[in-house]
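Batch 3, record 17
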Amino acid sequence: MAEFVMPTLGADMTEGTLVQWKKRIGDPIAKGEIIAEVDTEKAAIEVECHTSGIVEQLLTKPGDKVPVGTVMAIIREAGQPATTSAQPRNIAPQPVTPSRNPPVAKTAPASSSGTRLRISPAARKLAAERGIDPTGLQGTGPEGTITLDDVTRAATVAAGVGTVTTAAERQARMRQTIAAAMARSKREIPHYYLSTTIDMSRALAWLTTENGRRPVTERLLVSVLFIKAVALALRQVPELNALWKDGETVKSERIHIGTAISLRQGGLVAPALHDADRAGLGELMQRFQDLVKRARAGSLRSSELSDPTITVTSLGEQGVETVFGVIYPPQVALVGFGKVVERPWVANGLIVPRPVVTASLSADHRVSDGHRGGLFLAELDRLLQEPQSL
Amino acid sequence: MNITYREAVRSGMREALQRDPRVFLMGEDVGRYGGTYACSKGFLDEFGPERIRDTPLSESTFVGAGIGAALGGMRPIVEVMTVNFSLLALDQIMNNAATLRHMSGGQFSVPLVVRMATGAGRQVAAQHSHSLEGWYAHIPGITVLTPATVTDARGMLLTALEQPDPVFIFEHAYLYSMEGSLEEGSIAVEISHAAVRRIGKDVSLLTFGGSLWKTLAAATQLAQEGIEAEVVDLRVLRPLDHDTILTSVRKTHRAVVIDEAWRTGSFAAEVSAVIMEQAFYELDAPVARMCSEEVPIPYPKHLEEAALPSAEKIAQAVRRLLR
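Prediction for the assembled complex:
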């Protein structure tokens, strides 16, 4: 059995509210599939499951606020026997389709595994009358049976009493979350800052040519070059791609770039582009656009919020030339890019106009030193001079 | 007015004997000894040996004689000392008393009343502690009453004597010494309905006879824990009043049936089945039963207590339902 727990969807998240289950008891689930929607201070997040198997138990009911780490569901991993009698076909390693079971009547949500929902007849009847799907309810009766009271409570929640979060409330809470994280960062992390100005003429020339060959919808933005270059440079200076946990550095083998996205209503999120060093530019661009869209729609996934190993922020659009970033704990570095501007540049003894960008590094001095940080920026510069190899 | 259950039974019989010359009492030791439970003390002097008749130790004989007298127009009260000995009269009861109206095409009535003590709890060991009223409730053609209060102990007998068909009254032996308040002006009582003895909203406790008082004690205990139990005294096991049971269960959505008989094939099983059949979708928990352990009732006090339902066991069964 594997436990699905309330994930940390941000450094200072201590609890989350289950909005709804996306799976029902008995449903097959594959690793990476969405199992639940959780409301955090920042947004309603679609949370992925990290295990493949069959949803055996749902322990939290929609509307419940539970601390991070609370076991919310039990997943029977592929190959494990069911706690109750199950037929072999139901414990096949992977479901043929990742979608849910064929719809069943609301009044009788029996699952394919043969584990019938533990609900009293009266509760089942009331749920049907009120149009409530009892599958996600947490039973408080003997042996976790869903009782009349549980359905009545759920009906109250469904009727809009209690847990509905307004945009204004969410924004206020997001501000608090950012405040807490940034205050913690400045309180705990001894930042050092380095910056370098990078000649972008080769990169932009390559980008122009490249975009000329691409359909309009697949054209690349310069920020994607930055993200990819950062990801590759981290391979050379891996200590910047790490988390500071309990007084020590935990290096991350995978490079998940958190990309700061400002939200229209205020505030920002920095969801991860997973394994950015291994993705092609086209793919990265696509994923980046998708991320921006979903961040603004408030439908990010749990792993995207909890996984970043470093953050990249580009403030060029606002005309900013240099970013002095504040690290997002428990990460240990943040890379900032300003606006690409034309500046007089000395090349081969001549002063020429060149597009340049200021890249800055904010890093945690507990983890790395200026020397290593300098190497990182140099590597970043070198990579951006060879855009075709990004 | 407070009187004992024994006194209530006696007063009912006395009233019946005074009212109707067709009524007579027959049984082991009912005359000179005044009744094994002293329910007919003084009757021999008051009503004479014609109407207060001591019988040989032969249950089959005197129950059969009672059936004959009833067929002949009398209104006999037959006292079988205890349910344990009624097994010897079972053939007369099942094959004659219960069937004659049917087999005679309605020509013959058997207006017989049979009283007997039932139940355990007095350290009289395995042969004298049966609770077989549930068995009798299986038989069509007879009425089965289980008075638990002094008002019912007196009044049910009087109503029973007005019935055209056999009525069996099971008096829990443990109750004879119990005092209760006789409802003013009550003489005959109706014998068609169960009675709600305590109103509650969280769980229905369905019981009868000697278990009523244990159940009420459990309900008092539960009330202190914030659980409001409704206590229904079934009173009449046959024909069973389904409506009162179902009304209560539809209100509380949970039921525990308390029955001193053994669980397997018990009357509690019948009540449980009635609820399942007619109120399944009202249930918020499975119907629970609190019955005696499936052993011959032990003689030693602590073992006997362990074998029988108690207020604490009943309360515990309720807590399990509500968690």
